[in-house]
Amino acid sequence: MRTTQDYDVGRQYPGPPGAVAGDEPEGSGWVLFAAVLLGLAGLWNIFAGIAAIADAHVYVANANYVFSDLATWGWIILILGILQGFAALALTTGSELARWFGVACAAVNSIGQLAFIPAFPFWGIAMFSVDILIIYALVVYGGSRLRTA
Known about the structure:
It contains four helices and no strands.
């Protein structure tokens, strides 16, 4: 009579089925996640900047801004969105410069989103959270060790 010991039921496999151990370096998923999120955040910022410049009625009326008015913040957010799009594309190359450019773009955008809270409170807080995730992924898991696999 055969038992479970004959079938090696308790064996633990190192990865998903069909994967070869050591295919990808640790953290490569986080960096890809950061690149995709940075690209989406840039796209969202481009749309938000255009809406603010065009005086769309999606923002809070009569809000007080740090620098000037809603149109000024629209231009700031639009430029940040374009920079984030470039950073997301540059991250796919795996360069160290692209990593720190992405961190800088996310950091500046997080400050910009906190200042944009009077216009769109919940969106500003959500985008700030996304920027913190991007910074975490790029600082902790990015770098030259991804290229050495």
